[in-house]
Amino acid sequence: MIQPSPAPAALITGGTTGIGLATARVLHEHGYAVLVTGRNPDTLAEARRTLPGEVTVFRADARSIADAEALATELRQRFGTLRLAFLNAGIARLTPLETLDEESYDQHFDINVKGQLFTLQRILPLLGTGSSVIFTSSVVSDKAQPGMAVYAATKGAQLALVRTLAADLAPHGIRVNAVSPGMIQTPALDKSGIHAEALDDFRNTMAAKLPLGRIGTAEEVGRLVAFLASPDASYITGANMIADGGMSTT
Q1: Angle between helices 102-109 and 149-169 (to 10 degrees)
Q2: Which residues are catalytic, by number?
Q3: Which UniProt keywords apply (predicted)?
Q4: pLDDT (tens digit per residue) in 51-78
């Protein structure tokens, strides 16, 4: 059996690319023992190659409750307890209402809502006083964007969960918050459904509209996650922390 780590342990779902991958590096630098999950063989292999050797890369499908149970067993054996659960796995597909189908709808809610909730349920016994749960939501839940109705609905559902779970878990000393990124340069942007030839124009147009004049980085979101998990944020729960370069103010 693996001996539990003496370092504070952090789980990052959807941690093999983008914000999750960058956050894994940030948390490792902050002294966490980190486990990231993903399901794509290529990104799993790339994460194992590029992350520090101490970071554990574990295959788990965010939609699968059986995988959530296997993940909880791995975390218990490897770490014993968890200080941070960063529920970051998610998908975003640009889908106008006219072309939306049931498969896309189900996929968004299965990954972005159901999977996150049941993953938390399975790992809850590993969380205790002083621990932190953080969901990745999105400014799109409030700042309407064409073609993103279902994605925005899942992110709004997450924020409702955050508020309620913060009240549910407060008696156990567990804080629950959300981070809501705006335009962040990640591989998810490349898979959003925008044609490749239009993507650069889209990035430039969006950046020009932002008060800070640029698209954010995944590392900037990772540093916000690290703050929310730290003792410096010990009186923050049920909150949605926005990192959008001012997008929500326009």
Answers
A1: 30
A2: 151
A3: Oxidoreductase
A4: 999 999 999 999 999 999 999 999 999 9
